[in-house]
Amino acid sequence: MIEMKDVTKKYSNGVTALRSIDVSIKQGEFVYVVGPSGAGKSTFIKMMYREEKPTEGRIVVNGVNLSTLKDRNVPLLRRQIGVVFQDFKLLPTLTVYENVAFALEVIEESPAVIKKRVLDVLNLVGLKNKARMIPSELSGGEQQRVSIARSIVNKPKVVIADEPTGNLDPDTAWDIMSIFEKINDQGTTLVMATHNKEIVNTIRRRVIAIENGRIVRDEQRGDYGYEA
């Protein structure tokens, strides 16, 4: 599903964020990406949805070579990938329903399909009864649920989450993780960057640890491995 081969990323300010990264993630895997702040995790994550391009190396996601992908084709790629952010990135004037539906409207899906899919995913994340509310009327956890619903309404094969529980209280973070487990159980590949030691050590999955731009550990059913 995701493959990086000899990937290096150097920024224009001289910082080398990633160095000779080799990694392969199979369809249906659930992978945590961990490491100290500044280790290169965010760059690693952003590479997967072409927010950043490698300076060297090759990245393939769902059969698409991101290293040679033309900029005009990036929106098409992102329709096949769900992305969940720490700060939700919801449209503040749209309702919950409209925020999720927007992802389908931009690809000109039919109204009937939009209604069914949006209601299905809102039911999955437990927000069907709040479809008419706007983001400011929701808690942080509820806003993150909307963000997750929006990320999966296109039925992507891979969901990429960058610190999705970082702004949430512990109980809400566990609720969000239960949703991610449901998504993964349905066969969706899930890659999640996190600093949450308790979650990683409790919900055991594959762990990729990055330090100084290099993968220093890649373990099935690994642990967090750092002080919280």
CATH superfamily of the largest domain: P-loop containing nucleotide triphosphate hydrolases
Poorly predicted parts = none
Radius of gyration: 17 Å
> Which structural class is indicated by helix and strand composition?
alpha/beta
Whole-number tally of structural domains: 2
Domain ABC transporter: 2-228
Protein name: Cell division ATP-binding protein FtsE
Pfam family, one: ABC_tran
GO cellular component, one term: plasma membrane
Please characterize this protein's 3D structure.
The chain starts with a strand and ends in a 9-residue tail after the last strand. Helix 4 crosses helix 5. The protein folds into two domains: 1-74 and 158-222, Rossmann fold, CATH 3.40.50.300; 89-155, no CATH class. It has 228 residues and is of the alpha/beta class. The strands form two sheets. It has a six-stranded mixed beta sheet, sandwiched between helices. A hairpin with a 5-residue loop joins strand 1 and strand 2 (16-25). The chain is 32% helix and 25% strand. It is globular and about 45 Å long. One of its GO terms (biological process) is cell division. Residues 2-228 form the ABC transporter domain. One of its GO terms (cellular component) is plasma membrane. It is found in: Cell membrane. Keywords: ATP-binding, Cell cycle, Cell division, Cell membrane, Membrane, Nucleotide-binding, Transport.
Concise account of the structure shown:
This protein has helices at residues 41-48, 74-78, 96-105, 111-124, 140-152, 170-185, 197-202; strands spanning 2-10, 16-25, 30-34, 56-61, 64-65, 81-84, 158-162, 189-193, 206-211, 214-219. With 228 residues, the protein is of the alpha/beta class. Helix 3 (96-105) runs parallel beside helix 5 (140-152) and helix 5 (140-152) runs parallel beside helix 6 (170-185).
